[in-house]
Amino acid sequence: MLYNTLTTYDWSSLYNETSVDAAVARLIVTVTQAILKAVRTVSLKKSKFPVWFSENIKYYIKKKRITSLGVLRIVGLNTVMTNFLHIVGLLKQP
Question: Domain coordinates of the chain in residue numbers?
Answer without folding.
Answer: 1-41, 48-94
